[in-house]
What does this fold into?
Amino acid sequence: MTEKFPNHIAGGWSAPASGEYMENRNPARTSDLIGLFPDTDPSELDAAVASAQRGFESWSRTPAPERGLALKRAGDLLTRHKEELARTMTREMGKVLEETRGDVQEAIDTAYYAAVEGRRLFGRTAPSELRNKWAMSFRRPIGVFGIITPFNFPVAVPSWKIFPALLCGNSIIYKPSEDVPHSAHRFVEILLEAGLPPECVQLLHGRGETIGQAIVEHPGVPGLSFTGSTETGSRIGEIAGRMHKRLSLEMGGKNAQIVLSDADPDLALEGVLWGAFGTTGQRCTATSRLLLQSDIHDDFVERLCYEARSLRLGDGLEAGVDVGPLVHEAARDKCERYVAIAEAEGATVATGGRRPSDGGLGDGWFYEPTVLTGVARGHRAAVEEIFGPVLSVIRFDTLEEAFEINNEVRYGLSSSIYTRDVNASFRAVEELDNGITYVNAPTIGAEAHLPFGGVKSTGNGHREGGWEVYEFYTETKVAYVDYSGTLQRAQIDVDW
It folds into this structure.
């Protein structure tokens, strides 16, 4: 009998009040039904918010170093269950086991970093302009945060949001992607086992357009953190602005790897293969554009296509597999649609561009690693996010032209340049209009202790990760202590 999984509301596990469930299937073998997960009705949200508010009242008064110890225990448990969680994620969303192990490790790193920050929620002291008066600022938590996460990093991305939010003393209502509910269920089980107060962590499965939207619109949720498409993020931004909610958005990308003629060609080739086809291209930081200087273009493309054809597609749980399936049918259909659009606009499919025709992969959402050549700067494949294993190759002549091509898209998450020229490297770091720039490394590979995020239509200015995220999940309060025993009027009574 297929297992039915619950939500976590009001301190306990419970079936959806509506009795409605969603199927969760393995994208590598769609006949493999993982389980049934709640299709939560918005009518259940009030109870979750009330519980989260109660959780906030007690958790926010817990000393921050003690909160950090709970997250340290969560990191220990993630370490203990790393292999199990990795296998859960690969079965559920498709990327190869080596990558899902890295996904869990990123959450472990984030947990341990958060634990230390429990002793580092620093404020400031400043001299008062008046005698016998003390001035200071400190950080304090905000309240209930709605956490809405995507499918591609089922444990890492939630950890980026949930660990800092909890460390700062907030409570959360967590709505994971409906494509990876099992990973979310196990993640919350680990948080509870680590000793997080049950009312601090609400888990609501369901669809973005129903329970997700209800979380965004609820007046009892003063903060939101969302990772997903730019279109959805823009709608959330409109609501949050109208309701004066604190909001962090992490959205789309159209990331370019620039290869200059003086680059190490082997290193650049390894980088683009990993950047474009790791996670089956389903990363916001994936390399979706390859900018090649004209005098190396033809030779590099030939080698790239040969290596792309050698990548083995298959179930990510199997040894020797390089590229797993796309997460669902709509994602594969989108890849096919963009390849057709690219051809209609004059590009050429140099390799790939189709579903695999053999290898027993017909029961999964597989698509061959695809390289498009002859892509012009204005082509849709050059400027629109595809979110799959489709790489657009664009030729350029000068460094200035490469920078222009990188910067002219609406997104600004990640960029990369391969060169031996130190001057070109530092110009790239300064002039590429992205939140992240790599030198002699692919567009993917952010580290958990540094800020992560982009500019333009990629985000709204806030950052995940590192030290900056703790500022998002807290607000600054200023306190003045006047021990003069007399009324002192700032600015008015200052007479130097």
